[in-house]
Amino acid sequence: ALNAHLRPHRVSLLAAGPVADDFDARRSAIARHYRYDVLARRPPAATLSGLVWHVARPLDVPAMHAAAQRLLGRHDFSTFRDSQCQAKSPIRTLDRLDVIAGPGDIVSVHASARSFLHSQVRSLVGSLKLVGEGKWTADDLADALAAADRKRCGTVAPPDGLYLTTVDYPG
Hints:
The protein has helices at about 60-70, 120-130, 140-145; strands spanning about 30-40, 55, 75, 90-100, 105-115, 160-170.
């Protein structure tokens, strides 16, 4: 019955259950998992328009994945933080950042952490795209992280293609 109230949005409620009175969907989360899809080919997206970031050239997925691994762990992610971010600290622990070649010229970036800064995933994907195009190396990406300077960030990827896939809660 709740799904009737969610129209016309593309959201569906699949299950519901009781929670403690002090439960907060945002603050009670222990991990968040995102996927970002890039369509890396010359022909534009047709049925995927608005659902992926279309990049008109193939990307070097192994190079992107190798560079992404340099960002894992606890770091100051100021470089990949939106200028309007209201988080008290830019320090975050990135648990997963995998770049995977999918079907039909799709390149998926999977990111997991307890929490993310505003636009962090999109900023990471935009910088990884530069690696995939051969414009940056893994060292360039690591240097951008170490600089803790927003000006060192690559292009911020558009919102098309970003999906919050799962949120983990205690228990």
